[in-house]
Amino acid sequence: MSKNKGKSTEELLQEALVPEDEQPYKVPENWMWVTLGSIAEFIYGKSLPASQRSNEGYPVFGSNGIVGFHDEFLIEGPVIVVGRKGSHGEVSWFEESGWPIDTTYYVKPLGQLHYRYLYYLLLTINLKKLNRSTAIPGLNREDAYKQKVAIPPLSEQKRIADKVERLLHKINQAKQMIEEAKETFELRRSAILDKAFRGELTANWREQKNMNFNLDQKKLGDLIEEGPQNGLYKAKDAYGEGTLIVRIDSFYNGEIKEWETLKRLQLEENEITLYGLNNNDVIINRVNSIEYLGKSALVRNLVEPAVFESNVMRLKINDKVIPEFLILYLNSYKGLEELRKNAKHAVNQASINQQDVKNVLVPLPKIEEQIEIVRMLNLILNKEEKTRNCIDLTEKINRLESSILSKAFRSELGTNNLNEESALELLKNILVKDT
């Protein structure tokens, strides 16, 4: 039974319209501020246990995507799905017919309302903030229904949806180009490092120096003066203030993040002495998912005491190798391959031990050539990094995407026609049909 049954049009309008002093911002005269519940209905998805799902058929829609298939469909597509539990507040659009499960709502527009407009409108509402639960996050539809939204006449809804779609399509094309450029960057960086450690990058330099090509394969264990040593473990309640600690998320591509951003913890003096880091120490991630296992960094610019956590091992190298040369090699494709070649695999993670690290093969030229390789690589890779920074516009593009949606629902896309019939008539038709 309709929730509006028995009410007059005037009563329904009074409930649906947002008073002028409560409207978030001004909209054109032929637009109306209404509550979301007056123009759309959130309907509970239907339970479908995992045992009843398969690898083919109609898609099963979860809170944040497709979570399987079924031989029947619950809703004919297209369908708007909103997460109810777990990834609550996530808004998804699916072209095909499917089965929204019980962790979701599917959205039904009431009366004449442009479906795509409703979808983009929902994207502008922060439904994730509407969480009543302190245990499992969840979206109560009554909270969603209270949200204030602006609706224009139906023709304008279609124009807005079409224009937003065109603009977002261009943004998605830009994102794809950026990702392709990043991939090209990584491939080029890998090729440069590969040339360096095969002696190709310094071929002309050796010729000018009248030096022969001399590249020994040494085990990393032969280049270690002290270590490897695993780091220390402390319970969560030790963290807060005190000594800096380098964790597995503190370094990438051979560099430790800014020291002031690292976490701190309370330690005894003997722990700081035993696990303390020094400049030119090498740290290696010994436990992680395979794509991050073996990442390493060189300790530089240390300005206060710092230690390293248990998932990291530390080693101090001897004078047979330049620290910067070693860290560049360990972060190359070949270096990472060597570090991971004896990895032990478990569920969702892999590990290497101290002996695995000692057995890593390092292509080692003479000290003079190591210095030259480091110099050349720093010049080349610094230029490459500047190029990468120029193409890494992801954050700006995400802001642009939000800006487009914001402008669309403020009538700032230049599509509105004030001569069209007011959205008030549309709203009346929606409310009357829902009685």
Report on this model:
- The protein is α+β, with helices and mostly antiparallel strands and 435 residues long.
- It is 35% helix and 22% strand.
- The protein is built from twelve helices and 23 strands.
- The strands form eight sheets. The protein has a four-stranded antiparallel beta sheet, with helices on one face.
- α4 runs antiparallel to α10 and α4 runs antiparallel to α11.
- It is elongated, with a radius of gyration of 30 Å.
- It starts with 8 loop residues before the first helix and ends with a helix.
- The model has no long low-confidence stretch (mean pLDDT 88).
Write a concise synopsis of the structure shown.
The chain is of the alpha+beta class and 435 residues long. 35% of the residues lie in helices and 22% in strands. Helix 4 (154-196) runs antiparallel to helix 10 (367-391) and helix 4 (154-196) packs antiparallel against helix 11 (394-408).
Class by alpha and beta content: alpha+beta
- Per DSSP E runs of 2 or more residues, the count of β-strands stands at 23
Radius of gyration: 30 Å
Q: What distance lies between the first and last C-alpha atoms, to the nearest angstrom?
A: 9 Å
The number of helical segments is 12
Major sheet, described briefly?
Answer: 4 strands, antiparallel
Q: Residue share in helices? A: 25-40%
**Principal-axis shape:** elongated
Q: What is the residue-averaged pLDDT?
A: 88
Proportion of residues in extended strands: 15-25%
Note poorly predicted spans. Answer: none
Q: How are the strands of the largest sheet arranged? A: 2-8-5-6
